[in-house]
Amino acid sequence: MEEQSYRGYDALRMALEMERKGSGFYRSLAEKVSHRSLKDIFKQLAFEEEYHIKVVEEKLLPLCESDEAYWADEELMAAHLQRLMAGGAFPDQQRVAGRLEESGSEIEAIHLAIQSEKDSLELYKIAGEATGNEEGKRAFALLVEEEEKHLQLLHHWRKELAEHGGS
């Protein structure tokens, strides 16, 4: 099998796609859950994923306008991106609907969201470490910080629902 190489631009296009899917993912979850506060949380997360798109478009993509290598560690990024391309961070809407119907659980929606945020966080951490550009490092650090906030919020709501008999 031929090994594929990725430039920084490729990783950022993937990050954009991931954030777009994330926004749709959270909008879909907001439609499927009945718990009012959880519905609002998922709407908020969809809005924040839209903000992440702006960060990538405005702060990171301009750094890749030249053909120069963007990553200090190209091998690390290539391996990571290939793995990510195989799975994708956010599940598609059919898979989400199937899992929620199967379990009938709002906690399952949170589990799906937590795993998706962990995958996004991993991409941004590795990309930040692999980039040789200081502005790029700062932008990825901002995305990491945002995804960590999402994880904290989701863990909080998972605990809340578990303690108060959420379905």
In one word, what is the shape?
A: elongated
E-strand count? 0
Percent helix, as a range, is: over 70%
Uncertain stretches of 5 or more adjacent residues: 1-6
Q: How many distinct domains?
A: 1
Overall pLDDT level: 75
| Category by helix and strand content | mainly alpha
Structure overview:
This protein has 6 helices and no strands. The radius of gyration is 17 Å and the shape is elongated. It has helices at about 10-30, 35-60, 75-85, 95-105, 105-130, 135-165. The N and C termini lie far apart (about 45 Å). It has one domain: Ferritin, core subunit, four-helix bundle (Ferritin, Up-down Bundle), CATH 1.20.1260. By secondary structure, the chain is mainly α. The longest helix has 30 residues, at about 135-165.
Features:
single chain, 167 residues, mainly alpha, Ferritin, 78% helix, 0% strand
Entry summary:
The chain is an all-alpha fold. It has helices at residues 8-32, 36-60, 74-87, 93-103, 106-130, 134-163. It is elongated and about 50 Å long.
Strand-helix topology:
Elements: H1 8-32, H2 36-60, H3 74-87, H4 93-103, H5 106-130, H6 134-163
